[in-house]
Amino acid sequence: MKLKLLLAISFVMVILYGCNKDEVKDVPTNAPADQNASQQTGDTPTDQVTFNFLEFSLDVDYSATESYEVEYENKKSGISAKLQDDRQNVKLQGDEAYTKLEPLFKQLNFDSTTQNDEVIDQVIKVFNIEDNYQSIEVEVEFMDGNEKEFKRLP
């Protein structure tokens, strides 16, 4: 009975750890703030926001087994970031991923009114996406509350 309880507790701890390892712990002072949270607390004026989005997802498929993926969320519960590049055998999460992604995000200057092709062109340039991709998909939740999906096939 004690063994089962110990195993159950160990299993729960592993699950909880796995759920939190992509959370950014060492957030820079100039990191963007969730607009809704800043309006509620008054901590961060919106003119200090570095990015114009709360969520950013990028999925580039090169083949059935090779892809480049970015996940970023800035919510009331905190910032989470992931970067996976199968071609370079890179898997970053949390602070490491945010450190790599922050300068790239700062170069993106599209908003919810920008046309599909312009958004994809910016993402290809900023993230240095190779031309031989099979598909590219970007999903963004902007600071203004709009959610958009941008896609391109070669």
Low-confidence stretches: 3-8, 28-49
Our estimate of the beta-strand percent is: 25-35%
Task: Label the structural class.
Answer: alpha+beta
The coarse overall form would be globular
Q: Can you count the beta strands? A: 6
**Alpha plus pi helix count:** 4
Spatial ordering of strands, largest sheet: 4-3-2-1-5-6
Tell me the series of helices and strands, N- to C-terminal. HHEEEEHHEE
Mean pLDDT across all residues, rounded?
Answer: 79
Helix content: 25-40%
Molecular structure report:
With 154 residues, this protein is an alpha+beta fold. 33% of the residues lie in helices and 29% in strands. It has helices at residues 2-20, 35-41, 94-107, 116-126, and strands spanning 53-61, 67-75, 78-85, 90-93, 135-142, 147-152. The chain has a 6-stranded antiparallel beta sheet with strand order 4-3-2-1-5-6, with helices on one face. A hairpin with a 2-residue loop joins strand 2 and strand 3 (78-85). It starts with a helix and ends with a strand. Mean pLDDT is 79; it is low at 3-8 and 28-49.
Which descriptors apply to this entry?
154 residues; globular; alpha+beta
Blueprint of the fold:
Layout: H1 2-20, H2 35-41, E1 53-61, E2 67-75, E3 78-85, E4 90-93, H3 94-107, H4 116-126, E5 135-142, E6 147-152
Antiparallel strand pairs: 1-2, 1-5, 2-3, 3-4, 5-6
